Amino acid sequence: MPSDIKREETGTPINQAELIARANATVPTKVQSDWMDREFYGFIHFGMNTFTGHEWGDGTESPSLFNPAALDCRQWARTMKATGMTGMVLTAKHHDGFCLWPTATTAHSVAASPLKGGKGDVVRECAEAAKEFGLAFGVYLSPWDRNSIYYGQGKAYDDFYCAQLRELCTNYGDLFMVWLDGAGGGGIAGGDAEGGGRQKYDFALYHALVRELQPNCAIVNCGPDARWIGNEGGNARAAEWSIVDERHFTGAISVPPYSDIDPTAPDLGSRQEIAKADQLIWYPAEMDTSIRPGWFYHKREDAAVRTADTLFDIYLGSVGGNANLILNMPPMPNGLFHQNDVSACAQLGKKLRAAFGKNLAEGAILTASAESDAAHSAAEALSPDKNAYWHSGAADGSIELRLDLRHPQEVTYIVLQEHTESGQQIEAFSVYAEQENAWHRVAGAANIGHKRILRLPKPMETQKLRIVIEETRAFASLQTIAIY
């Protein structure tokens, strides 16, 4: 373990025991843990921009434009389920302020549109479709509202926004996630809202309301439960940490000081980085990206839909790199996904099932050089039970696990999961495979976290694998070891 880490402000050495104790005490809440288990879900960007061809509307659009004649939220849910997603999140209101449900807060909603003669409710149809197909349901509610007369008026707008949040959190069943955007607020890129000045969002108020009404719901992006990964292109860090320096993310708890945050920094949680912290928080990452260049549907992008191979690589880098993946699929003006999007997702679903359908480690023999006790022996890491896990105990130096598949198997992927309720502890590890009576290093990384998927350069036949944990913060734990 490094011994020369110094606090950035003073240059004085950090007490290693203190640092490790703080890191060990930093673990996810149940809401965060349940959210991390969702791993992969869909985004639905649908609204006024779908009909105007814009990405950011200005709030002056007529509700008469919104008329998805063939609206079928069941097609959305069916497509996402077949892709392997666990939930879907709808843009209930984007920056233009148009609400996809008949809200009592404004006339700028589906109630003033031709949809079902003003009787339509896209949020309800989406929530019901999600439930039918076994998907969790969540909402995006933009704090930036370029239509509201209250925007820029401080408390008056906060009350208006909270009234919308209350409707969504009480009228549509359980929500697994509320996705909050920071665009258009004080000090945030996006420009002044039409008809009002910048609004300094009272995120602490919004968070408290969601917690009150939906206590099991994760509040993501401008929220305390998960953060933006730092780009929308589907590019993951080589080492994504869930334990980060709280001072850089004070905004997750109260009002975001966005000028103080660099979510694109290459390192947010290594030992060197957390040594600068006075307070650590568990703040996992979510990667948000779109199946198309834009977030809303544009006909000109029909030939620019990402391929299944590209989407599969993004999945490996995000879900397989300790970050959840939310993949946007924008419906067309008629209210359906384009066939190109459906086809790409269907192929992605097939690739995921082919890659991870059969765990070759089932029935394997796993031993470890260190175990804390019999209840957390190495064999527990092969159990599908989330509550079963291997724990090394306080081991000094490298720790080795040996996996015998009982007979030679063709291996392409190695999937590892830490027991995150015990923290994120592993700081470096390598995987070796035996071939012709010799051990060869075939994979490795700096960390694991909720899930690490290692793809070998090419499939290889082997019967025996070694996982060598080279550096830890205090101990090591693994909830899952799976081979595909």
Written overview of the protein:
The chain has 484 residues and is of the alpha/beta class. The chain has 2 domains: 16-356, Alpha-Beta Barrel (TIM Barrel); 365-483, Jelly Rolls (Sandwich). The chain has 10 helices and 18 strands. Strands 5-4-3-2-1-10-9-6 form an 8-stranded parallel sheet, with helices on both faces. α7 (203-213) links the parallel β4 (177-180) and β5 (218-221). α4 packs parallel to α10, α6 runs parallel beside α7 and α9 crosses α10. The longest helix is centred in the C-terminal third of the chain and has 18 residues, at 339-356. The model is unreliable at 1-11, 186-196 and 251-260 (pLDDT under 50).
The number of helical segments is 10
Structural domains: how many: 2
- What is the typical, i.e. mean, pLDDT? 91
Return Rg in Å: 24 Å
What percent of residues are in strands?
Answer: 15-25%
CATH architectural group of the largest domain: Alpha-Beta Barrel
Helix content: 10-25%
Major sheet details? 8 strands, parallel
- What order do the strands of the largest sheet run in, or round the barrel if closed? 5-4-3-2-1-10-9-6
CATH class of the largest domain: Alpha Beta
Distance between the termini: 32 Å
Q: Which topology of the largest domain does CATH recognise? A: TIM Barrel
Strand element count: 18
- The SSE string, one letter per element, is HHEHHEHEHEHEEEHEEHEHEEEEEEEE
